[in-house]
Amino acid sequence: DSHATKPPPRPKPRSIIGNIHLLGFKPHRFVAEPSKTNGPLSLKLGRLTTIVISSSNVAKEMFFKHDLACSPRHMLDASQVVGHEKFSMVWLPACPKWLDLRKIIAI
């Protein structure tokens, strides 16, 4: 795109923990209420920005049309030390090998 889109609204995050303190004991309700009126909601969970999608149509579009953009995972240092990142689908980056494994699992 030639122009950047504005990210979804989110509550002001605290440093380090982000919005984790706001989730409480019923996080599904915390994200459901604002998303009913505002649409997608953006949260800062620790150092990761998370977008909450509350519509099944939008979720389907994200997973089928934009799956590579939504699939990056942050690798834990512990998984790199023992070498699991090379053989586990959980830690593989979105690449041809990962896509092949994903197709096998989906069958």
Mean pLDDT: 75
SS element count, helices: 6
What is the topology, as strand order, of the major beta sheet? 1-2
Q: Tell me the span between the first and last alpha carbons.
A: 34 Å
Topology:
Blueprint: H1 20-23, H2 27-38, E1 41-45, E2 48-52, H3 56-65, H4 67-70, H5 77-81, H6 96-106
Antiparallel strand pairs: 1-2
What does it look like?
The protein has six helices and two strands. The protein is mainly α and 107 residues long. Strands 1-2 form a two-stranded antiparallel sheet. A hairpin with a 2-residue loop joins strand 1 (41-45) and strand 2. The longest helix has 12 residues, at 27-38. It is globular.
Write out key terms for the chains shown.
6 helices; mainly alpha; globular
Concise account of the structure shown:
The protein is mainly alpha-helical. It has helices at residues 20-23, 27-38, 56-65, 67-70, 77-81, 96-106; strands spanning 41-45, 48-52. Strands 1-2 form a two-stranded antiparallel ribbon.
